[in-house]
Amino acid sequence: MILKVLMIDFGIFLLIMDLFMYARQKLTDGIGLGWAIVSLALLVAGIVVSLDDVCYLWSGAKNIVLLMFTVFAVIILFLFKISMAVSVVVVKNQELAMQVSLLNQENERILQELKVLVDEKEDIVRN
């Protein structure tokens, strides 16, 4: 019973963290959706798993089950942290690409103006 409660609580916690980080724009759309699916899968698994299997597993080795669940939770949280960092880098990369594009457009405009000024100066020198 405790294992089911832990899975359900961890699924809810992960879903809340996902929504909170998505709202703070720390996760992109795709990565946020992926973590929402993972958290909902944990939540559903906690609800659907039969009580007989959990009791059998729990009665055999409580300490090992808790240790495995703790390791699993730490790995999931570590992956969540890594995906947050990847999302931030992706967003910054998109912003940088937009700034480079704007700078290239400005550079082209300045080069055209310079060409017009050089042509005008050559016309003045010829006359």
> Structural class of the helix and strand makeup?
mainly alpha
Number of strands: 0
Q: Tell me, rounded to a whole number, the average pLDDT.
A: 88
| First and last CA, distance | 96 Å
Low-pLDDT sequence parts: none
Strand content: under 5%
- Output the radius of gyration: 28 Å
**What form results from the Cα inertia axes?**
rod-shaped
Description:
This protein has 127 residues and is mainly alpha-helical. Helices cover 92% and strands 0% of the residues. The protein has helices spanning 2-23, 29-48, 51-60, 62-126. The chain is rod-shaped and about 100 Å long.
Quickly list its features:
127 residues, mainly alpha, 92% helix
SSE layout and pairings?
Layout lengths: L1 H22 L5 H20 L2 H10 L1 H65 L1
Helix pairs in contact: 1-2, 1-4
Outline of this structure?
With 127 residues, the chain is mostly helical.
